[in-house]
Amino acid sequence: MTTAPYEIRPIGHVESSITGREAAPKQGFEGAPDAWLVLDADVAEGIRDLAAGDEVFVLTWLHRARRDVLAVHPRDDPRNPETGVFSTRSQDRPNPIGLHRVRVAAVEGRRVRVRDLEAFDGTPIVDVKPVIAGGR
Amino acid sequence: MTTAPYEIRPIGHVESSITGREAAPKQGFEGAPDAWLVLDADVAEGIRDLAAGDEVFVLTWLHRARRDVLAVHPRDDPRNPETGVFSTRSQDRPNPIGLHRVRVAAVEGRRVRVRDLEAFDGTPIVDVKPVIAGGR
């Protein structure tokens, strides 16, 4: 099936104390620090109803990823058997979109403080969505 | 912050009996029919470890969406107060990526049958990720 490519335009970026690939925890719940979502001014209206306590999915663009990889050793550990990328959360995948479930700690203008976000400082944000019933 | 646009290259498409905007259920759990994820041949290796029973997030590109919308009446119901899009699951949003949590019913080659996928027939698929602990 022939489908056109589509263009992602970042809506903001992450501010985080995680700056190097080695320092990033493999999953947020293993202890990522608090971080900020900094929305671009032209889309900031879209977060006007976000509030402390909300649970959201943050979608990011993993701009350091390799896109030509279809199988990986999960968690970059060679002892884990090579696994198809769509059964892993590897950042290396054809469309390197990160999916992060986080809780909003505070909203200050177009800055949103969130808990347990596993993302490098400067990571582009592509979307924010509420978590709905059943964690969907 | 200046960030380049990024290019999404679909990895496949949805086959579904949902063909019109009006017919689409607003959330999968309200009763979407089974559907198929049809992976493109060049990325099919990435699903080699998917199996019946797996719970996955499917990310789609909502190619009929409007991208210039920052507030909507949730569920297209004018009785619902206008809400910033990042607090809704509206398909109209700056980067119209759909997020669908579904269960794999069967894998047949590069076709994956899934339960409760709310997506139009022909919707481009951009990623598939396992659901991990805590529904993340």
TrEMBL record, chains A, B:
The keyword S-adenosyl-L-methionine applies. Keywords: S-adenosyl-L-methionine. Residues 8-136 form the TsaA-like domain. InterPro entries: TrmO-like_N, UPF0066_cons_site, YaeB-like, YaeB-like_sf, YaeB_N_sf. Pfam families: TrmO_N (PF01980). Residues 73-97 are annotated as: Disordered. PROSITE patterns: TSAA_1, TSAA_2. Belongs to the tRNA methyltransferase O family. PANTHER family: TRNA (ADENINE(37)-N6)-METHYLTRANSFERASE (PTHR12818:SF0). This is tRNA (N6-threonylcarbamoyladenosine(37)-N6)-methyltransferase TrmO. It comes from Microtetraspora fusca. The gene is tsaA.
